[in-house]
Amino acid sequence: MNKAEQFIQSRLQERADKGILRALSSTNFPIDFSSNDYLGFARSAELKIRTATTLGQIPHYKNGATGSRLLSGNHNFTEETEQAIANFHQAEAGLIFNSGYDANVGLISSLAQRGDTVIADELIHASLIDGARLSHANRYTFKHNDLNELEAKLKVAKGNIYVLIESVYSMDGDIAPLVEINKLCHQYQAQLIVDEAHALGVFGDHGVGLVQMLGLEHEVFARIVTFGKALGCHGAIVLGSTNLRTYLINFARSFVYTTAAPIHAIAAIHSAYQMLIKTDYTTKIKSKITLYLNLLKDSNIPTIQSTSAIQTVLFNNSSEAKAAAQSLQIKGIDVRAILSPTVAEGKERLRICLHLFNSDLEIKKLVNELKTLKHE
Ligand SMILES: Cc1ncc(COP(=O)(O)O)c(C=O)c1O
Asked: Whose CA is nearest to atom 4 of ligand 1?
């Protein structure tokens, strides 16, 4: 075995010894409490039909984009879709990236320069962390949702300051104190960047997201909205000023140096937004969340408080969390364990996603099973 193979082997062995070796699995269980398909769009027959109809109206569309957006891969329809999404979110402009990961990496790494400061909530998504790592800026984190720590970091920050948060945290499901963070950002002339991946479709009128629900759309510097969760599609958009859009077209390497998304992906995104515009699903998804929380009330199951579609059940270690997930899966309930290093050691958990399509009976069955789990 050569040195590189030895290195690979030893890193994998380390993970296996700790019981946290990741592996792909295509097993799905009948009752979905795991996917990010909050509104059921990924499985929606209506979305399939709408997408096909939209595609039918685009003459001679190609299977592949054939190049990057700056070369042969741009299309009027993509630009029209970007503007329509920006309008829905009351932003001046938007630029579509091939994924939320690409959007965050491209945005942060291109914006923050040497001498600037990036201050991030300690629980932000890996894609934002990677974007900050790729920049040459000074990087700080603050304790999750802790305004005092954020202010302390803002006081010593230099250059252009960027504060990175999620409106709904992907692994905890809790919500950022957006109004207060926005206030601090204004006080210290920092630019607030909000990842709305898990707020779209769930918060605000017609699921516009938490930033708009709080009327902060003209306050924040940029928003990232991803299409792979409630929208049931793939890709993401960065929302901000027209100048920011032009800047990203010029400097965001994950936008410039990649083949554009194909038109059928854009048609699906366009059609999914039409569905959000046509129907407000938020009351219905809220009723599912409320039912779950009510059923859980008075049990002493350890959770993180959340009013979003993401709920948690905490364990002390990965083997407990894995055993809990397995015991639910045997009963046909698809719930996954989230282990370190995705979450901190000792904070391993079941991550439960509630969906529009989960029947009340399914939610009751889930909670009954959760009540039988052991937490040592
Ligand atoms: C908060 C957050 N931001 C960004 C992403 C990345 O989005 P995508 O899956 O489209 O790459 C995710 C999804 O994993 C996420 O949870």
From this structure: 100
Residues 31 and 140 in one domain: no
Q: What's the CA-to-centroid distance between 196 and ligand 1, angstroms?
A: 9
* Cα 100 to ligand 1 centroid, rounded to whole Å: 5
Ligand 1 test: best mutation among 226, 231, 336, most atoms within 8 Å of CB? 226
Residue 251 lies in domain: 58-278
d(CA 370, CA 101): 32
Pair 285, 272 in one domain: no
* Residues present in the chain in total: 376
Question: In the chain, how many domains are there?
Answer: 2
Could you report the per-residue pLDDT of 32-64, keeping only the tens digit for each?
999 999 999 999 999 999 999 999 999 899 999
Q: With contact defined as beta carbons under 8 Å apart, do 257 and 98 qualify? A: no
Ligand 1: distance of its center to the CA of 5 in Å? 31
**Same-domain pairing of 196 and 340:** no
Whether residue 162 contacts residue 118, with contact meaning beta carbons closer than 8 Å, is answered with yes
Q: What is the pLDDT of residues 96-149, one digit of tens each?
A: 999 999 999 999 999 999 999 999 999 999 999 999 999 999 999 999 999 999
245 and 325 in a single domain? The answer is no
Are the beta carbons of 358 and 288 closer than 8 angstroms? yes
- Cα 126 to ligand 1 centre (Å): 8
